[in-house]
Structures are given as structure tokens and as C-alpha cells.
Amino acid sequence: MNSILLTLKVAFVTTIFLVLISMPLAYLVVRVKKRYRIFIEAILSLPLVLPPTVLGFYLLIVLNPNGWLSTSLRTLGFSGNLTFNFTGLVIGSVIYSLPFCVQPLINSFDSVPKIYLESARLMGAKRWDRFINIILPLSKKGLLLGSILSFAHTIGEFGVVMMIGGNIPGVTRVVSIDIFNHVEALEFSKAHQLSLVMLLFSFLTLIIIYFLNTLSERDLND
Q1: Which of 19, 50, 139, 195 has its CA 20 to 30 A from that of 103?
Q2: What distance in Å separates the CA atoms of residue 117 and residue 145, rounded to the nearest whole number?
Q3: What is the pLDDT of residues 13-25, one digit of tens each?
């Protein structure tokens, strides 16, 4: 039960950070020139193709207590560690799940009719006003889809959280690691119970995603 609550907490906090980070990133992508956009999108999509252990390994190097980042933060007054704790889990999860939040937003921002933005610009609306009052309201389905995908993807991750968080009971032992521990200890009944929860959650997530896609197609047809 503790691992389930910890997993939900990590997924919830990660999703909040991802939404806040992905909105400006997606807006940047749709505004840059195409030759630069390809490069930026490739960087943002790296977690999709990198093995989770590779990503976790490099994060472990960057975030280790003696690394340049931790040292720089300590000079600014931050005394905590960035690995093997809740903070490390969130940082790893944000980077690992970033493509699942930013890509739906890029697609939604791209689909906003340019004539709306141009009309608003001619009427004196600043770039920030156009983003808040036109782009975001017309991209709410992409925002919802990105949030759901990010939350679900964070729930099921294993390699990154194992590398950067370890296997500390009550601190970094999320559901996926707990299942691995039960299997390793030949506790198959407990592994079955947690796996069934994950299976049902994944199935429900897919139903919600396909339902949202159906609504989007219906709106386009109307």
C-alpha cells in the first residue's frame, strides 16, 4: 500500500511540473523555424528512444551530491540531495515523461487556426495575451491528453526510478520496484496483486485516451 501511495504522489507532482514546463516548451517549438524545430523536437523526444537505464545513469552522474549541479545549488543555500529521495524520483520522472506531455501540446498548438492569432495581433493583443486567451483555450484537449499520458507513464516507469531513486522502503520504492522485489523473493501472490492493479489502471487510462480522441474526431466532423 505504501508503494502505491508513493507512486501516486510522484505521478501527481510530476504531472504538475510537466504541464508547467511543457506549455512554454511547446510554444517555443511551434514558433521557431522549421530547421531549428527538428533539432529541438529531437532533443525533447530523446527519452522515447533512450533505454531508461541509460537515462537514469546520466541523471545519476549529473545529480550526484559531488556533481557540479549539486555543488552549485549548495552555494545558493540548498542543502538537500537530488538522488535517492522523493526529489530525485520527481526529477527523473519529469525528464523521462517529458515527451508524453509536450508532444500533445505541440500538436494542439499547431492546430490553432493562424487566422485567430493574426486577427488578435491586429487588434493589439500582445503575444502573452494571445497565448493565454486563444492558444490555451483551444488546446485544452491536448493539455488534458498530455496530463493523462504523463501521469500514466510515470506510474509505470521502472529503470529511471531504480537508477536515480534506488530501492528504499517508504522513500523511493514505487509500485514497479515493489513488484520486482516480490518476484525476486518468489512472492508471486503479492506480485500478482500489484500487477493486477497496474493492469487495470493501464486499461482505464487507454479507455480515457481513446474516448478523448473520439471526441476530438467528432468535433472535427461537426
Answers
A1: 195
A2: 23
A3: 999 999 999 999 9
Please give the single-letter amino acid code of residue 6: L
What cell numbers appear for 25 in the block? Answer: 516548451
Report, as an integer, the average pLDDT of 51-71: 88
Query: At CA 93, angle to CA 76 and CA 214, rounded to 5?
Result: 135
Q: Which three cell numbers stand for residue 59?
A: 541523471
State CA 28 to chain mean position distance. 18
- Cβ atoms within 10 A of the Cβ of 55, count? 19
pLDDT band at 81 (very low <50, low <70, confident <90, very high): confident
Q: Let me know: does 3 contact 156? Beta carbons within 8 Å.
A: no
**CA-to-CA separations, 216 to 32, 142, 172, in angstroms, rounded:** 26, 10, 38
Q: What CA–CA distance (Å, rounded) separates 107 from 103? A: 6
Beta-carbon contacts of residue 90 (< 8 Å; ≥ 6 apart): 10, 13, 14, 17
